[in-house]
Amino acid sequence: MGNKMAKLSLSILSADFSALGDTLAMLGNGGADFIHMDVMDGRFVPNISFGSAVIESLSKKTELPFDVHLMVEEPGDALARYVTERTEYIVVHYEACRHLDRVLRGIKSLNVKCGVALNPSTHPAVLDYVLDLVDQILVMSVNPGFGGQAFIPGVLDKVRMYDSVRKELKLRYEIAVDGGVNVETAPSILEAGADILVVGSAVVGAADPSAALRTFREVANACAG
Ligand code: DX5
Ligand code: ZN
In 99-140, where do the E strands start and end? Predict the structure, then answer.
């Protein structure tokens, strides 16, 4: 089992978009550590979700920090729009940035932590030359674009690799896993060395989201130690 307390980042992608403020108010004190904001541009991924104006509005509805997951082609010019008083991380996709190093430094220059997401088919070595720059590596465990997809277990090899490289090189990045995370898949993800579980439909899509979040928190805590 893992040896540290997992952080939970709650994705609102599967929530009722007409009531996002209410959803945050309902779940805000229920055990999540972050709210995970899935921004989709209809180009990098087939789907369009919401953008910076919605994130800005939602920043007034919760005390929780945001990790903003940009599934957006070439996000470098628009980074400042995602900075709100709640924004802690801005995460961009390796596959969407021609000049990844520049984009990551751009995020840091906004006094926000930077993260890189990797699609399931992307080799982990592509981050070798930015490992000392990143605050979070987001290992996608589904192909990005939609909530509610099945977990791809092969990506756990990447989590193990990034965890062992982190120890070997004494680096401090956090490892997050996103897609198909639920109470069945969470234990193996944490055992592989992840720090942050991104959970969407398993909580927000449950009949009783508050109860599902509590149960999830208990399962994640039971994996620690
Ligand atoms: C997928 C998104 C995920 C997703 C998680 O493109 O990045 O954050 O919404 O949702 P579930 O937990 O339903 O897979
Ligand atoms: Zn996401």
Answer: 113-118, 136-140
Ligand 1 binding residues, C-beta < 6 A: 11, 13-14, 36, 38, 69, 142, 144-145, 147-149, 178-181, 198-202
The pLDDT tens digits for 93-150 are: 999 999 999 999 999 999 999 999 999 999 999 999 999 999 999 999 999 999 999 9
Structure-block tokens of residue 208: 């009783």
How many other CB atoms sit within 10 Å of the CB of residue 21?
Answer: 13
In 3D, which of 161, 173, 71 has the Cα closest to residue 132?
A: 173
Helix crossing, 209-223 with 20-27: angle to 10°? Answer: 50
Q: Which of 8, 10, 12, 13 to mutate to test the pocket of ligand 1 (most atoms within 8 A of CB)?
A: 13
pTM, two decimal places: 0.97
- For residue 143, what are the contacts with CB-CB under 8 A and spacing of at least 6? 119, 120, 149, 179
- Contact by Cβ (8 Å): 185, 151: yes
- pLDDT at 1 exceeding the cut of 60: no
* Spacing, Cα 69 to ligand 2 middle (Å): 5
